[in-house]
Amino acid sequence: MPNITINHIAVVVEKIDEALPFWRDALGLPLSKTEDVPSEQVQVAFLDVGESHIELVQPTTEDSGIAKYLAKKGAGMHHICFEVDDIEAALAHMREKGVELINDSPKERNGRRYAFVHPKSTGGVLVELYERIIQT
Amino acid sequence: MPNITINHIAVVVEKIDEALPFWRDALGLPLSKTEDVPSEQVQVAFLDVGESHIELVQPTTEDSGIAKYLAKKGAGMHHICFEVDDIEAALAHMREKGVELINDSPKERNGRRYAFVHPKSTGGVLVELYERIIQT
User: Fold this and answer.
1) Is A38 at the interface with chain B, CB within 8 A?
2) What is the distance in angstroms between the Cα of B22 and the nearest Cα belonging to chain A?
3) Hey, which bits of B52-109 come out as E strands?
4) Residue A50 maps to which CATH number?
5) Which residue of A6, A19, A94 is in closest CB contact with B26?
6) What is the pTM of this model?
7) What average pLDDT does the structure give for chain B?
């Protein structure tokens, strides 16, 4: 049995402030973190749900990838991120199975290794992989 | 702290058989159940991921709601289902907060009480609520 969990579901929104009344107040998920990510021209908010999170993503410029996605597809679910123990092993296994990867080797952000899988191999879903961080 | 978890993420696919090579074989999620649901004109497959599931949904007719969704939007994530302890209380709280519900009171299927929340209140995401079944 592989040790895989859902780390987060990313939801693209026009404005985080206008989305929080549903996700935090009406659904009741605790807001755990908000963050400005200038490198990706977005603001994000993380809400806790069991072992997973909902990540609200708001574009901060008009020409970022997320802003273009929002303009084209509208607000809604953007990607699903799974957490695995060994990201190199997971990517190697996927390559063996013929899966098309967006990131052929892991990238790193804030000490977290991650990679994206192309939606054409998943049945239309943008999938991200995170390597689990073992708390010491 | 509310006791909310993600029960499942529903993914609409053309063919479950063509999606399993990614979700089951490449990602490695165990397939726990496949089911024909004639009342909704779909076949579904559930894969386990931590405390949650991925639900692959394939239309079995050309004029079902899911078939029309697939034709219009393409394959991809369809809805996210949260599990709550008391669905009547959750719906009442949402109404108080001005959330628009698709099902104003819970429906029932296979002994499971559920209701859908309108995407216009969530920032574009179709949200389902399940009432947790207490195992005895």
Assistant:
1) no
2) 6
3) 52-59, 76-84, 107-109
4) 3.10.180.10
5) A94
6) 0.95
7) 95
